[in-house]
Amino acid sequence: MVIDLNNTHPFYEADQALRVKARDLFSGAEVVLSATNVETYLLKSDNESTALYTIRKARAVYDNWVAGVINARQALLWRKAPTRNLPGPLDALLDNVNRKRDSADTFFWRVAQNAQVEGLWWVLVDKPRVAAIPVSAAEEQSMGIRPFFEAIEPDRVLDWAVGDDRALLWAVVARDVSKYDEAEGGRQPGQEDEAVAERVTWTRSEWIVYREAENAGYVEVDRGTHGLGAVPLVPFYGEYKDDFRGRPVVADILPHCINLLNKFSDRDMAEFMVCNAIPYVISQDNPGELTAGAMKGMFIKAVEGAQCEIGYLEPSGNGISACRESERDLIRRIAEIALRQAKTDTAQAQAADSLKEEKREFSAGLAPASRMYQSGETECWRLAGLWLNQRNLDPEIAYNQDFDDDRIGADMVAQLLTLVGGDNLSRRTLLEILVEGEVLPENIDVDEELERIADQEVAAVNQLLVGMKEQEAAVEAEPDSEQKDANAAA
């Protein structure tokens, strides 16, 4: 069988742009607003000057709702740690599953998080290859030769084929390695390391390593057989779309988050223009350089006989308030989607029916996602057993399946309350979001609740005023220091 190492799978090509966007927006402002990405996400209009766009780039602010959704979902999925009942040979791997001192909990938590961000993540179950062949299991263990798990980004699994049994027939995995061979002493002090591209092909019976050679494509440098009877790559999905194809669980909110970034920037720029209006002069003669505050002025040549005019160009109308309302609407949409991630499948469908907007429902609820991660981890341990020539090992992995309908991520509620405190979200909108997200009872009267809050605030202010008046009266009734001295002398 000949495998073209330069090919990529159609799923790989079709999903790459969405994966990159989801990863960027999850990573936060440092990535979204970086010099490389800012012009991708902070959109420049055709008629906008470079100078004004430069100002907008410098003032841009990105609120990371994507990370908030993922973290809230992870908190619920991992509220209870998985339980594992592993046969002896496998149990010894629990505290260091990847040869980097990560426990099974830590490793698979990260895999689940990354799968939800990008839609798909892989785990390679491998075993070190050494020149000396151990003669016994005890000698192998003493040499540190044991199976391990390696998390593989979806961008590195380039191509694959699937058999009639819906399992992998073969796969191509990309990796970069140091050009300095460890067996020859590795990189020496003072030397700059250089990466060399490799492709590793896995089939159900062998592996082959190819290394990129100058002007020669990829050249085989190593190969070997294994008795696994399977390609040791296990997929973990965010939202399952097809075999070996996933979708980010945040895919539906990505456009809203980009839109929110731009809406905020538009409003911020309008407010900037109000505070830094552009001066202009209409006259026969150019008066030379015009500046006012941060803005450079404009000269407009007047028609013959027209009077000279001096003024400022500044935004007018309801544009700023309209932007603010639009921002709040976007935040509301994002929050509604986020809150629905804390619900069971039935509750999610009911919540979707109550929403007027046509938004695609996240098809992967918490319970199905938990079952997928449980199945994926179980397969990883099964493959590790095969590497140990143990075909009858029966690992038992159990992920949390008990998701309380009334629970939502505490961090999501905290974010909503922060928005209310920062005047980005009204109390009414917050209450309506919590009702539609099934956090508050469906029959709650929002108007009555707002009146109750207002009454409590008025009562608190009145109590504060009474206390201030009592304190003021007490001070007035107390003799001043001179009177105290006179009384003491008497």
Task: Tag the structure with descriptive keywords.
490 residues, alpha+beta, five-stranded antiparallel sheet, 16 helices
Please describe what this structure looks like.
The termini are far apart. By secondary structure, this protein is α+β, with helices and mostly antiparallel strands. The radius of gyration is 32 Å and the shape is extended. Among the domains are: 10-28 and 64-252 and 362-408, no CATH class; 278-313, no CATH class; 447-490. The chain contains 16 helices and 17 strands. Residues 342-364 and 405-411 have low confidence and may be disordered. A 5-stranded antiparallel beta sheet has the order 4-5-6-7-8, with no helix packed on it.
